[in-house]
Amino acid sequence: MSTPTHPASPPVRLRGNRNFLLLWAGAGFTMLAARMSGIALPLLVIWRTGSAWSAGLVGFAALLPNLLVQLPAGALVDRWDRRRLMIYCDLGCLLATGSVAAAVLANRVWLPHLMLATFIQGSLAILYRLGERAGIRHLVPPEQLPAAITGNEARTQASGLLGQPLGSVLFTVGRWLPMVGAAVAHAVSLVCLLAIGSKLQEERDPAPRRLFWREVTAGLTWIWQRPFLRAVMGLVGVSNLLFQAVSLALIVIVHDSGGSPRVVGLITAAAGLGGVLGALSSAWWLRRLSLRAVLILALLAWALLIAGLANTHQPVLLGLDFAMISGIGGVSNTAGGVYQMRVTPDALQGRVNSVLGLIGSGCSSVGVLLGGLALQSLGSQPAVLGVAALMGVLALLGLALPAEAPVHSTQPAVTETRVAEDSSVQ
After folding, report:
1. What is the pTM (predicted TM-score) of this model?
2. Which residues cross the membrane (predicted)?
3. For 365-384, how does the pLDDT look when each residue is reduced to its tens digit (9 = 90+)?
4. Domain of 246?
5. Residue at a domain's end among 202, 222, 244
6. Distance in angstroms (rounded) separating the CA atoms of residues 222 and 230
7. Contacts of 188 (CB under 8 A, 6+ apart)
8. 146: number of CA atoms within 13 Å, CB side?
9. Same domain for 193 and 278?
10. Within a 10 A sphere around the Cβ of 138, how many other Cβ atoms?
């Protein structure tokens, strides 16, 4: 007589997945700390010295890791234990932000110290983000991956919505408070990481590793060998460049119409809220549209919405426009994140994500310079209309995207040796 078989128990819902919730919350506190310190340091420099040049140096030190650290960070995330690496990152960020708070309290603020602290925090934040993103799929089943990425995108948008206003408010109470708040947030994140009971990577092949620079470039090579992903990243990179001009244009439009910085803050808050709502709605879109369709429709909608910015100075309309722009961004970011995580082998997750981050941040850095030049030379309305036209061209180019690579619900185990062979430059 055969023994009856019982169906496998359904996977735990995300809300009951303790390890995922700990990772989700810990990363949220880390992002909140970065937002708080990111607004507090320029305020500290300006209010203490009155020097925009000094504030620019601190801002440059904060952005420099995006260009210098991304690729090696991806290789380290794939080489080392991800959870342990993230714990070290939180410890380092806690010490960096705590040292700035102590310097402010002691009235011993030194510009090189601020630059070093923000560079260290930015570098460790990149390592943390890459480790968290690569480790998600080891905590949730494949069918829950879209919901997990949706929650992460909503959390990222919410941290931007809360972090900068909170940092500004704390700064008005005490100039040291935002840095203490950031240190506390890193401490909470550290506690969350220590409580996670699962590994965040597959077992690695103990075979000898390749030269480090070959590991660093493996993610770039892997993306280049996939026409669809390569083309998508080209479109995303250029659109990120254009959005920097849009962000600068908002400040110019509000200033030229007689508005105040508070108006800019309210509009950016509306954009953050739109991003959260867009991320939360992304599951509905992903069930109906492919990544290719999402990207084309997003580029087209952005072109129309950006063109609308050139014809209004009303704060309410600007807020609605930016909320819709960010909402579409929340959907497209989630769609791209789910696709990338499903098609990339685990042993390459950190390096592939580092390349994507480098493309996004690198284009954003260039976009700030070009956007400022266009706004200064042409004025806000012609510059914004030009950006809208270029975004429309990107939508047309999206129609020529090659076919998507097939996405599987599960990924077979891939050893480090096999990945090294598959990713080597021929």
Report:
1. 0.70
2. 21-47, 53-73, 85-106, 176-196, 232-254, 266-286, 293-310, 316-335, 355-375, 381-401
3. 667 667 777 877 888 788 88
4. 213-403
5. 202
6. 9
7. 25, 26, 29
8. 18
9. no
10. 18
